[in-house]
Structure formats: structure tokens, C-alpha cells
Specification:
three-stranded antiparallel β-sheet; 192 residues; 12% helix; mainly beta; outer membrane lipoprotein receptor (LolB), chain A; 2 helices
């Protein structure tokens, strides 16, 4: 399981493109030349949720439990094995991002970017994007967010459900052959 999670975390790094200059502090490179700059936790909806996260990369799937808590001062995420062993933690206070990973290959800035692109009110996101475009549509009961760079799809995010804590979420990153499915779990104790 540990090697599978290491593979999952390393695969998330494929979303970030190669670049000669690093992005500004608080910003993350997405796609070939796009940049996303994180919002402070106060700009995000308050959430306390636990999801079963299934990551599929190149046909191989691994699952873990993701526990997320957002309030006006912090965004906290903990990844746990299905047996409850801590795999990684992430804490963002709007200025500093700290993380710990059992596998050592966690890309916390990338996880933060994908979380915010999924959870932030869509109207808050365009000012945070450089060389990226966001389109938001509704397909039945799902909100669909597509992040593109120069007309090429970087990520597609589908959110089914009106409350984020109980939403089913699907994220597809085509260039990385990566898909994430998040299915809500019943409350299982205090958040990270």
C-alpha cells in the first residue's frame, strides 16, 4: 500500500509542467505554462468532510481516506490508509503551506491547488489564474469545471451534490493519465 500511495503522490507531480522560472510564492505551476495562486482559507467555504479517494493512474487504482477541514484560518487535509495509518498531512493558513508525507514525495502545493480549484466559489478563481482559463457549466445535477491552457484541457472537475461535505467529486487530468474519484463517507471522528 505504501508504494502505491507513493506512486499516487508522485503521479500528481505530472500535472505540473517543466519551467525555467519558479512561480511566485503561494502559486503553483499547472500544465505547460499556467499558474494558479492560492486563495486564503477565509475565501473558501467552511467544510468538514471525509471522502474515500480512489486514484487511477495508467489503469492502476489505489484508494485512501481523505479528511478535509476548512475554516476561516486553516485548510487541513489528512490522507489515511484504509487501515487508518497516516499517509500525509497538509496545513495551509493563507501564508504558509506545511506538509508531512510518509512516502516523502508529496507535492503539497499541487494538492492545495486542486483542492481550491474544486472547492472555491467559481467567481473567486479567475483572478488567481495565469495563462489558464476556467469554464463552469451545469450538466444535470453536476457542476463541471474545466481548466484549460491555450485551448488544451488541463483538468476537468465534476461535483455532484449541493453540499461539498456530501458531494461526489471526479477530477480528470488527461495529460497525466490521472483520475481521482472522491465519494463521501459518514463522519468518522474529529477532522485533522
Amino acid at each position: 500500500m505504501k508504494s502505491g500511495v507513493t506512486l499516487i503522490l508522485a503521479t500528481l507531480g505530472l500535472l505540473a509542467g517543466c519551467a525555467s522560472l519558479p512561480p511566485a510564492p503561494g502559486c503553483t505551476r499547472l500544465g505547460p505554462d499556467g499558474v494558479f495562486c492560492a486563495l486564503p482559507p477565509a475565501a473558501l467555504p467552511a467544510v468538514s468532510a471525509t471522502h474515500l479517494v480512489t486514484v487511477t493512474h495508467a489503469g492502476e487504482s489505489q484508494s485512501f481516506i481523505g479528511r478535509l477541514q476548512i475554516d476561516d484560518r486553516h485548510l487541513r487535509l489528512a490522507g489515511l490508509s484504509l487501515f487508518g495509518t497516516e499517509l500525509f498531512t497538509l496545513d495551509y493558513d493563507g501564508r504558509q503551506l506545511t506538509s508531512h508525507s510518509a512516502g516523502g514525495k508529496l507535492r503539497p502545493e499541487l494538492l492545495l491547488a486542486m483542492l481550491e480549484l474544486t472547492l472555491a466559489p467559481a467567481a473567486e478563481l479567475p483572478p488567481q489564474l495565469r495563462n489558464l482559463s476556467l469554464s463552469v457549466s451545469t450538466e444535470g445535477q453536476r457542476q463541471v469545471r474545466e481548466l484549460t491552457s491555450h485551448g488544451r484541457l488541463v483538468a476537468r472537475i465534476e461535483i455532484s451534490g449541493s453540499r461539498l461535505s456530501t458531494a461526489d467529486i471526479n477530477i480528470v487530468i488527461p495529460s497525466a493519465q490521472l483520475a481521482l474519484q472522491l465519494a463521501p463517507l459518514a463522519a468518522a471522528g474529529p477532522a485533522p
